[in-house]
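All the exercises in this workshop are built on plain-text protein records. Instead of coordinates, the fold is spelled out as a row of discrete tokens. Once this layout is familiar, the rest of the handout is easier to follow. The record below serves as our worked example for the rest of this section.
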Amino acid sequence: MKVIALRGVENSGKSHVINIVYHYLLKEMWTQVPGYFRILGNPKFEDILDILTKDGILVGIIGAGDYQKGRLGLANLIALHQTNGCDVVICACRKNHKIEACVLKYSNHIWIDKTLSPTDSYHRIANSIDAQRIYREVVKP
């Protein structure tokens, strides 16, 4: 299983980028696997969990990545997607060595560092750049 982790500091827009990728995949004809979608915690933060499929490939989506342990912990959510047979997992991951260790457990992992925007007016551009980088890793043969 390949884990693509968007790594960044708290409140840098990681969950928002994961949501952009999620909606882009849906637009590109990836379909939801019934029974997996759920909102993790406060909907305001756009932390979602879901599994999408296309051409026999399963992609797990994790918008939350701020916790190491517990039901909403990144380690638990990645393991859940692995148990569900996902080929790829896209997740947010807060810059924190304990949380990053949840991703490092998987030998096939890719870090994408969250692009920080210098001002509010650049958030959309920075988020689009990060979403495109993640999408390219998902569809890479």
Helices lie at 14-27, 74-83, 97-104, 123-139. The two ends are 13 Å apart (CA to CA). The chain has a mean pLDDT of 91.
